[in-house]
Every structure is written in structure tokens, then in C-alpha cells.
Specification:
- The longest helix is centred in the first third of the chain and has 21 residues.
- By secondary structure, the protein is an alpha/beta fold.
- The chain starts with a helix and ends with a helix.
- It is globular and about 65 Å long.
- The chain binds 3-isopropylmalic acid and magnesium ion (MG).
């Protein structure tokens, strides 16, 4: 039973690490409306990343021309978050790149490639943890169907926090799921605050608390506690399986407004929701914490498009939606609104191949509309 002792020692170490993490969870929130200068880190990423990011930066420079000239906004290019450099350093986010990133307030990030196999963690998962980006915020809207959903996915705990630290034993494997009071409180608070500030009347808590009794049970109980502070908002609770069905049930799905849910369920259901909207390439995504925030396209780096020489035809719409979310986050509401309206009105069609416009042609037309 030597393996049993090893496993218990491993488990003890994990518990100790998590107890330590608990102590770091209550940091004050940065107030962007009171800041004299905001630094936006520009991270290109891999594959089509540099191509769509070039367009995103053009838009940013036009929208924030005055703020950049006045030094209210600083655009800072961060080099080295490339697959080549990450493999060479054998680090998902090389130390010096992370240090540069931490000098910024917010990041606009192109997609990064995660190598298949090996042990290298995804750059995204590393950045979410290192910058404590606990809220993954993903809007999905289909106005003609009356659908206007906002997902608040917990982004640093649940099945992800120890996802690469499970235990392999003879004939069995064990993974761990961790839910903390403080971690749940802050994501629940973020969801209810969003609802309150945006005139939403309903928040749906999604768990599998009938089965995951301790972790999801805690998530559910704490969400109820927070909900009691918002009597004007109706809070309801659903299990993830039936909610997955609800999203394809056309007779009820447009009644849902805001969702709050643990990490893995949020990962799965936001892909479903984005697909209902028109594909995972159509949704923007924000990773928010109290100190930092990172905005990105929901899609990947599309290495196949690069191999086929089609990189120029990549669609910048998803990263531009994320850019609008970034502007809102740093309290540049007017610029955010102008970009959102232009994105809705832009008639140029990008198809991802030579039948459609290039990313640059799309952006030319968008800039005309700003
Ligand atoms: C997402 C992605 C990531 C996740 C991957 C790339 C690690 O699927 O942002 O939803 O699982 O969170
Ligand atoms: Mg996902």
C-alpha cells in the first residue's frame, strides 16, 4: 500500500496549497473611472492572431486618438507570447513575458496555440490563474429571436484549479474539484451587479448540486445568500443538464438573461450558446479580475488558415467585440458604444476564404462607420 501513502501525501500538499490560495482571494478592486492613465497591453498571439490584432489596434487608435495623445491611454506591445518562445523556454507564459504583462492594467490578446500532448499548460489557463481573472464573461445575443444572454462563468476554480494535479493509482485515477466561499462570492456578486447595473431582472444559477453535493452545493448556497441582497432581481436555480436543453428550447430560451455557473459547466454551455448565435467565431470573451482583465476572441489561432495562405481573410469580428468589452471595462463607454454600433452596421462580409473580404478590407469599412 505504498501508493496509498504517496497519494495521501500528494492530496495533503494540494489541500495545503489551496488553503494558502484562500488567503489571497480578497483583494480590493481597481477603479478605472478614477485612474489618470490606463495601460492596454497588446498581445498578438499565434497563427491568425497578429493579423486580427493589427486590425484591432487600428480601430483602437482611431477610437482613442485623443486619449492616446493626452497620455490617458497607453498602448503597450507585449512580445514573446508565441508558441515558438513558449516551447523554447518550456513555460506556458515565459517569466519575462508575464512580468511585462503585469505592468499593464488590461490586455487585448490574440489567440494562442496550445501544443497537443506533452505537459505544457494552456497559456490562457496560466494567465487566468496568475492574474486571478476569476470572471469569464461571455455575452450572446440574437436580437431577432429576442435572445440576450450574459454568462458569468467562474474562471479560476472548480475542475480547472487542480485539473493537471490529479492522482493516478493502480487501476484508477482521481481528479479534484475545488470550490471556495470567497471564490464563489465574488463571481456571484459580479453576476448580480451586472444584472442590477444593466436593468436585468433575472439571474439563473446553474449547478449539478444534486450530485456534486459539497462543491456545487456550496456554489448554490452562496449564490442564494448573495441573491438575497438583490430583492429586485429574481434568482432561480437549474441543473446543468436541463439548462443545456433549455438553450435549444425555442419556446423558453429567450426568457433567460444572466447566468452564473462553475467553471466547467460554463466552459461547455458558452460554446453551446455561441454556436446558437452563429458559431464560436462570433462571440467575444472577457476574463476579469479585480486587478487585471484580459479580452480575447473566443476562437483559436487557426493554424490551418495560415498553412493554406488564407490568414489575410481571417475574421476580426470576434476580437473587435472583445475590444468593445475592454473599452466598457475601462469606463470608455462612448467609444465602446460607437464600436458596438459600427460592428452591427458593417455590411462587409468576411467568410474566412477568398470569397469574402480580408480582415483589412472589413476594418476599412468599419473605420468609416466610427
Ligand atoms: C475557453 C477554452 C479554454 C477553457 C481552453 C482553451 C483551455 O475552451 O476559453 O473556453 O477550457 O477554458
Ligand atoms: Mg471553452
Amino acid at each position: 500500500m505504498e501508493y496509498m501513502e504517496k497519494a495521501l501525501a500528494h492530496f495533503q500538499k494540494l489541500l495545503e496549497e489551496q488553503a494558502k490560495r484562500l488567503e489571497t482571494l480578497n483583494k480590493p478592486r481597481k477603479d478605472f473611472s478614477a485612474m489618470e492613465s490606463v495601460t492596454i497591453g497588446i498581445v498578438d498571439g499565434d497563427g491568425i492572431g497578429p493579423i486580427i490584432m493589427e486590425q484591432a489596434v487600428r480601430v483602437l487608435k482611431q477610437l482613442l486618438k485623443k486619449e492616446i495623445a493626452d497620455g490617458k491611454v497607453v498602448l503597450k506591445r507585449i512580445e514573446g507570447l508565441t508558441i515558438e518562445n513558449r516551447l523554447a523556454k518550456n513555460q506556458p507564459v515565459p517569466t519575462e513575458v508575464l512580468a511585462e504583462i503585469k505592468t499593464c492594467d488590461v490586455l487585448l490578446k490574440g489567440p494562442t496555440t496550445t501544443p497537443n500532448g506533452g505537459t505544457m499548460e494552456s497559456a490562457n489557463v496560466t494567465l487566468r490563474r496568475e492574474l486571478d481573472l476569476y470572471a469569464n464573461v461571455r455575452p450572446v445575443s440574437i436580437p431577432e429571436q429576442g435572445i440576450d444572454w450574459m454568462f458569468y462563468r467562474e474562471n479560476t476554480e472548480g475542475e480547472y484549479v487542480l485539473g493537471s494535479k490529479g492522482i493516478d493509482l493502480p487501476g484508477m485515477a482521481v481528479d479534484f474539484k475545488v470550490t471556495t466561499d470567497a471564490g464563489t462570492r465574488r463571481i456571484a456578486r459580479a453576476a448580480f451587479e451586472y444584472a442590477k447595473q444593466n436593468g436585468k431582472t433575472r439571474v439563473s444559477v446553474v449547478t449539478k448540486a444534486n450530485i456534486m453535493k459539497k462543491t456545487d452545493g456550496k456554489f448554490s448556497a452562496i449564490c442564494k445568500e448573495i441573491a438575497a441582497e438583490y430583492p429586485e432581481i429574481t434568482a432561480d436555480e437549474w441543473y446543468i443538464d436541463i439548462m443545456t436543453a433549455n438553450l435549444v428550447n425555442e419556446s423558453i430560451r429567450n426568457q433567460f438573461q444572466v447566468f452564473v455557473l462553475p467553471n466547467l459547466y460554463g466552459d461547455i454551455i458558452t460554446d453551446e450558446a455561441a454556436q446558437i448565435q452563429g458559431g464560436v467565431g462570433t462571440a467575444g470573451s472577457a476574463n476579469m479580475g479585480d486587478q487585471y482583465a484580459m479580452f480575447e476572441a473566443i476562437h483559436g489561432s487557426a493554424p490551418r488558415m495560415i498553412e493554406e495562405g488564407l490568414g489575410a481573410y481571417a475574421n476580426p469580428a470576434s476580437i473587435l467585440k472583445a475590444e468593445a468589452m475592454l473599452l466598457r471595462h475601462i469606463c470608455m463607454f462612448d467609444a465602446a458604444q460607437r464600436l458596438e454600433t459600427a460592428l452591427e452596421d458593417c455590411a462587409v462580409v468576411v467568410t474566412g476564404d477568398k470569397n469574402g473580404a480580408t480582415a483589412a478590407q472589413y476594418t476599412d469599412a468599419l473605420l468609416e462607420l466610427l
